[in-house]
Amino acid sequence: MIVDSHVHLTRDFGGPVERARHLLTFADRLGIGNMVLMLGPNLIETPNPDGIRADNDFVWKVLEAFPQRYIGYVYLSVAHPEFSIEEMKRCIVDGPMRGIKLWVCRKCSDPAADKIAEKATELGVPILQHTWIKITGNMPGESEPKDLVALARRHPAGRFLMAHSGGDWERGIRTIEDTPNIITDLSGGHPEAGQTEFAVKYLGAERVVWGSDADGRSLASQLAKVTSANISEAEKGLILAGNIERILKL
User: Fold this and answer.
1) Per-residue pLDDT tens for 82-135?
2) For residue 108, what is the domain's CATH number?
3) What is the pLDDT of residue 5?
4) Cis check: omega of the bond before 215, within 30 degrees of 0
5) pLDDT for 135-156, tens place per residue?
6) For the whole model, what pTM was predicted?
7) From the CA atom positions of the chain, what is the Rg in Å?
8) Which domain holds residue 159?
9) 172 in Cβ contact with 203 (< 8 Å)
């Protein structure tokens, strides 16, 4: 079974359960078994603690409805580190979630991220950090791959996932090459030929996971990044399932 390591439910119809069921109809066609869900329906760039909790409650409802299909990451904010520690206890220690999602409220190189990373390392859960390199300039709090490298090197026992391969994937992948506790995900961006082969060349297949970034991206076009890649079947198996299963202890 394929594991999609990066999905959202932002399409505006029905509640969380209806949206989750709809996405599964497409996943079933493609042999995608588990889907890692994060963030709520509205994608607020700088949420307050109430908004963060509401987003996590949204994900929790999906996990309760489809416990055999969806895996949850708790959404946290570097702008609210003390609250984030409390939310980790609620959603991971006392709840069903298996990882952490950081987005664009503040760069992850900020020292305020250290408390979150320390607790994540203690709990043995990964941090998935949105990263992007934009020629037009990033949002003020939007991390680039170099920001994640700074955080990961301060916490060498932690496990980190670089979302979207940094957007500009050639630069993003080379940026994390010498930081072995960072794994790249392939989600989002256009399904360009060569991305997966480039990641395997510079990182090794064990440091690459597949994700779609649905429902903002099509499952089929994103899946083609791996199924059409010129790599071995064993390497495809690691990227499509084996690596994320190991990381999340599925």
Assistant:
1) 999 999 999 999 999 999 999 999 999 999 999 999 999 999 999 999 999 999
2) 3.20.20.140
3) 98
4) yes
5) 999 999 999 999 999 999 999 9
6) 0.97
7) 16
8) 2-248
9) no
Q: How many domains does the chain have?
A: 1
Give me 141's structure tokens. Answer: 């709090």
Those residues whose C-beta lies under 8 Å from the C-beta of residue 94, and which sit 6 or more positions away, are none
The reply to whether omega before 110 is within 30° of 0 (cis) is no
Mean pLDDT, all residues of the chain: 97
Mean of pLDDT values over 192-203: 97
Task: Tell me the two tokens of residue 145.
Answer: 């791959």
Residue whose tokens read 């994540």: 120
Distance of CA 33 to the CA centre of its chain: 17
Residue 6 in tokens: 């990066």
Cα gap 192→226, rounded to integer Å: 11
> Residue 45 — φ and ψ, nearest 5°?
-70, -35
Looking up tokens 């904010």 gives 77
Alpha-carbon span 185 to 6, nearest angstrom: 8
